User: What shape does this take?
Amino acid sequence: MAEYLASIFGTEKDKVNCSFYFKIGACRHGDRCSRLHNKPTFSQTIVLLNLYRNPQNTAQTADGSHCHVSDVEVQEHYDNFFEEVFTELQEKYGEIEEMNVCDNLGDHLVGNVYVKFRREEDAERAVAELNNRWFNGQAVHAELSPVTDFRESCCRQYEMGECTRGGFCNFMHLRPISRNLRRQLYGRGPRHRSPPRSHTGHRPRERNRRRCPDHRRGRF
Ligand SMILES: [Zn+2]
Ligand SMILES: [Zn+2]
Assistant: This one.
């Protein structure tokens, strides 16, 4: 019996534990879900909820019509966002194994940024500190995530370009970064930079820190 329960843990057959929360770290029922969301007490992965704002979804003029934002601009904006978040988190908290951003539209997945650190203690510290931070005018909401294997959480149809559920799919639709940026962020050999251990003054320093002119264009 115990073996059977272990084999179905976190799958659709499991009537107790929510398979969506287990695999994707987010479920559309949120706190009202009838199944359990087992929040991890330690994990290599953190999620920053709703952090990425796709300008194609948010750009609206005063009369409610959509501004035109080209695909090239969106990719550039996204690459800048990705690089900034990745670089800052890696410098502050420790080596990142992988980072993924959801391009879904459902409230529980839209703009979620998943960061998998190499070490659990780095993830823990990141969550504790990031919850006191602001990013582009909104409070950051960070938590430890049960997601460890992104192949399990991704929508396979989306990767083949054939997901019929579109943005409201409940599996992750991960937005790819450009090839150059991928090479730049992941392509270095073994990293030797040790993260700075300063614990002081993150908030004001953060505001002054934004050097990259792309983030002053006020697209948010
Ligand atoms: Zn659930
Ligand atoms: Zn899908």
Q: What stands out?
A: Residues 110 and 196 are 31 Å apart (CA to CA). The longest strand covers residues 96-101.
